[in-house]
Every structure is written in structure tokens, then in C-alpha cells.
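Troubleshooting log. The previous structure file for this entry was overwritten by mistake, so regenerating from the original sequence record. Sequence copied from the archived sheet and checked twice against the printout by T.R.
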Amino acid sequence: LSHSPAEFVAVGHVGCGEEAREIRSAFAQQTGHPEEEITIVETGMAIAVHGGQGTLGIMVVSRE
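Regenerated output below.
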């Protein structure tokens, strides 16, 4: 993972908000990206259907 500044970071989850918060915290610690700027969202139906309960993902949009 590049340590360059990111424009947007989000953690998506399917019914596992606590784990999403843990991932957000770990990501912030490892990259230096401010934790309060990392959005947590429950994913849409397509990901939920294919991934199921407990699915987690991180989206990073680079400034470059």
C-alpha cells in the first residue's frame, strides 16, 4: 500500500460494524491517514448477496 495521500478512504461492510471500525483504526495507524476521515458504510445489496454476512472491504481513492 502506498503511503501517498488519499483523497477518500472508506471501509464497507455487511453486518459487521465492529470489525469495520477495527479495520478503520488499523488502516489509520498503518498509513497515518486520519481515522476520522475514513468513512464506514454498509455495502449495497449486490456485494451483500455475493459476499454474505461478515464481508469487509477498503476503498482508497488516490489524489493522483
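DSSP finds two helices and three strands in the chain. Archived copy saved in two places this time.
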